[in-house]
Amino acid sequence: MEGHNMSTGGGGHEMSMGAPPMTMNHKMGWTHMTFFWGSHSEILFKGWPGTRGGMYALALVVVFLPGVLVEWVSTWNLTGRGRSRLLNGLSQTAVHALRMGLAYLLMLAVMSFNVGVLLVALAGHALGFLLFASAFCNKREAERCQAGTAEPPPFKC
After folding, report:
1. Helices marked H in 2-138 — which ranges?
2. Is Transmembrane helix tagged as a keyword (predicted)?
3. Apex CA 83: angle with CA 77 and CA 85, to 5°?
4. Number of folded domains that form the chain
5. Using CA atoms, how far apart are residues 78 and 88, in angstroms rounded to an integer?
6. Is residue 45 part of a domain?
7. Which of 36, 70, 115, 151 has its CA 20 to 30 A from that of 50?
Protein backbone atom coordinates (compact mmCIF):
# COMPACT_ATOMS: atom_id res chain seq x y z
CA MET A 1 0.00 0.00 0.00
CA GLU A 2 2.07 2.79 -1.30
CA GLY A 3 1.94 6.10 0.52
CA HIS A 4 0.32 4.80 3.70
CA ASN A 5 2.16 5.10 6.95
CA MET A 6 2.59 1.54 8.24
CA SER A 7 4.55 2.50 11.34
CA THR A 8 3.48 1.35 14.76
CA GLY A 9 4.20 4.30 16.98
CA GLY A 10 7.88 5.13 17.39
CA GLY A 11 9.31 3.83 14.07
CA GLY A 12 8.31 6.81 12.01
CA HIS A 13 9.17 5.38 8.55
CA GLU A 14 6.92 4.36 5.67
CA MET A 15 6.94 0.90 4.18
CA SER A 16 6.09 0.66 0.51
CA MET A 17 4.22 -2.51 -0.37
CA GLY A 18 3.43 -1.69 -3.99
CA ALA A 19 4.57 -4.08 -6.71
CA PRO A 20 6.06 -2.91 -10.00
CA PRO A 21 3.57 -2.97 -12.87
CA MET A 22 3.61 -6.12 -14.98
CA THR A 23 3.05 -6.17 -18.71
CA MET A 24 2.03 -9.15 -20.77
CA ASN A 25 2.93 -9.29 -24.44
CA HIS A 26 1.21 -12.59 -25.21
CA LYS A 27 -2.37 -13.77 -25.24
CA MET A 28 -3.56 -15.19 -21.96
CA GLY A 29 -5.70 -18.28 -22.22
CA TRP A 30 -7.87 -19.66 -19.50
CA THR A 31 -8.82 -23.08 -18.33
CA HIS A 32 -12.13 -24.23 -16.94
CA MET A 33 -11.95 -24.87 -13.22
CA THR A 34 -15.32 -26.65 -13.12
CA PHE A 35 -16.60 -29.51 -15.25
CA PHE A 36 -18.23 -28.48 -18.50
CA TRP A 37 -19.70 -30.24 -21.49
CA GLY A 38 -18.58 -29.21 -24.95
CA SER A 39 -16.24 -29.87 -27.82
CA HIS A 40 -14.33 -26.60 -27.52
CA SER A 41 -11.54 -27.61 -25.18
CA GLU A 42 -7.81 -27.92 -24.74
CA ILE A 43 -6.68 -31.43 -23.88
CA LEU A 44 -3.03 -32.16 -23.09
CA PHE A 45 -1.57 -29.64 -25.57
CA LYS A 46 -2.18 -25.96 -26.19
CA GLY A 47 -4.68 -25.50 -28.98
CA TRP A 48 -5.52 -29.21 -29.29
CA PRO A 49 -8.08 -30.38 -30.30
CA GLY A 50 -9.28 -26.89 -31.13
CA THR A 51 -12.84 -26.11 -32.16
CA ARG A 52 -13.45 -28.74 -34.84
CA GLY A 53 -15.73 -31.64 -33.87
CA GLY A 54 -13.65 -34.22 -35.74
CA MET A 55 -10.53 -33.29 -33.82
CA TYR A 56 -12.48 -33.47 -30.57
CA ALA A 57 -13.63 -36.99 -31.49
CA LEU A 58 -10.01 -37.94 -32.22
CA ALA A 59 -8.97 -36.49 -28.86
CA LEU A 60 -11.58 -38.65 -27.14
CA VAL A 61 -10.16 -41.74 -28.87
CA VAL A 62 -6.65 -40.69 -27.81
CA VAL A 63 -7.88 -40.42 -24.19
CA PHE A 64 -9.81 -43.72 -24.37
CA LEU A 65 -6.86 -45.84 -25.52
CA PRO A 66 -4.50 -45.14 -22.59
CA GLY A 67 -7.33 -46.12 -20.22
CA VAL A 68 -7.49 -49.54 -21.89
CA LEU A 69 -3.69 -49.77 -21.97
CA VAL A 70 -3.32 -48.98 -18.25
CA GLU A 71 -5.55 -51.94 -17.42
CA TRP A 72 -3.71 -54.21 -19.85
CA VAL A 73 -0.29 -53.23 -18.55
CA SER A 74 -1.53 -53.81 -14.99
CA THR A 75 -1.92 -57.51 -15.81
CA TRP A 76 1.63 -57.98 -17.10
CA ASN A 77 3.94 -60.19 -15.11
CA LEU A 78 7.39 -60.10 -16.67
CA THR A 79 9.12 -61.85 -13.80
CA GLY A 80 10.46 -65.38 -14.12
CA ARG A 81 11.67 -68.09 -11.80
CA GLY A 82 15.02 -68.62 -13.47
CA ARG A 83 15.84 -64.92 -13.77
CA SER A 84 17.92 -62.95 -11.35
CA ARG A 85 16.35 -60.69 -8.77
CA LEU A 86 17.88 -57.72 -10.57
CA LEU A 87 16.22 -58.58 -13.91
CA ASN A 88 12.91 -59.29 -12.19
CA GLY A 89 13.13 -55.99 -10.32
CA LEU A 90 14.03 -54.06 -13.46
CA SER A 91 11.16 -55.58 -15.44
CA GLN A 92 8.70 -54.81 -12.63
CA THR A 93 10.02 -51.26 -12.47
CA ALA A 94 9.67 -50.80 -16.24
CA VAL A 95 6.08 -52.04 -16.18
CA HIS A 96 5.29 -49.81 -13.21
CA ALA A 97 6.83 -46.75 -14.90
CA LEU A 98 4.85 -47.40 -18.09
CA ARG A 99 1.61 -47.85 -16.15
CA MET A 100 2.19 -44.70 -14.09
CA GLY A 101 3.12 -42.69 -17.19
CA LEU A 102 -0.12 -43.69 -18.90
CA ALA A 103 -2.13 -43.02 -15.73
CA TYR A 104 -0.61 -39.55 -15.31
CA LEU A 105 -1.29 -38.78 -18.97
CA LEU A 106 -4.93 -39.66 -18.37
CA MET A 107 -5.00 -37.58 -15.21
CA LEU A 108 -3.73 -34.56 -17.12
CA ALA A 109 -6.34 -35.08 -19.83
CA VAL A 110 -9.13 -35.28 -17.24
CA MET A 111 -7.80 -32.05 -15.72
CA SER A 112 -9.18 -30.30 -18.81
CA PHE A 113 -12.46 -30.55 -16.82
CA ASN A 114 -14.28 -31.68 -19.95
CA VAL A 115 -17.03 -34.15 -19.05
CA GLY A 116 -16.61 -36.01 -22.34
CA VAL A 117 -12.93 -36.57 -21.59
CA LEU A 118 -13.76 -37.84 -18.10
CA LEU A 119 -16.37 -40.24 -19.46
CA VAL A 120 -14.13 -41.74 -22.15
CA ALA A 121 -11.24 -42.09 -19.67
CA LEU A 122 -13.55 -44.03 -17.35
CA ALA A 123 -14.91 -46.06 -20.28
CA GLY A 124 -11.36 -46.94 -21.33
CA HIS A 125 -10.51 -48.15 -17.85
CA ALA A 126 -13.78 -50.10 -17.66
CA LEU A 127 -13.29 -51.81 -21.03
CA GLY A 128 -9.66 -52.56 -20.24
CA PHE A 129 -10.62 -54.11 -16.92
CA LEU A 130 -13.39 -56.13 -18.57
CA LEU A 131 -11.05 -57.46 -21.26
CA PHE A 132 -7.92 -58.11 -19.20
CA ALA A 133 -8.75 -58.50 -15.53
CA SER A 134 -12.40 -59.43 -15.05
CA ALA A 135 -13.87 -62.90 -14.69
CA PHE A 136 -15.55 -62.39 -18.07
CA CYS A 137 -12.35 -62.71 -20.08
CA ASN A 138 -9.75 -63.89 -17.58
CA LYS A 139 -9.88 -67.64 -16.96
CA ARG A 140 -7.97 -67.51 -13.66
CA GLU A 141 -10.28 -64.80 -12.32
CA ALA A 142 -13.34 -66.76 -13.49
CA GLU A 143 -12.11 -69.79 -11.52
CA ARG A 144 -11.66 -67.61 -8.43
CA CYS A 145 -15.25 -66.33 -8.83
CA GLN A 146 -16.56 -69.89 -9.09
CA ALA A 147 -14.64 -70.82 -5.94
CA GLY A 148 -15.95 -67.76 -4.11
CA THR A 149 -12.46 -66.34 -3.49
CA ALA A 150 -12.53 -63.49 -6.03
CA GLU A 151 -11.69 -60.00 -4.82
CA PRO A 152 -11.08 -56.80 -6.70
CA PRO A 153 -7.58 -57.11 -8.10
CA PRO A 154 -4.92 -54.93 -6.48
CA PHE A 155 -2.85 -52.45 -8.42
CA LYS A 156 0.10 -54.65 -9.25
CA CYS A 157 2.77 -55.26 -11.81
Report:
1. 53-73, 85-110, 115-132
2. yes
3. 85
4. 1
5. 7
6. no
7. 70
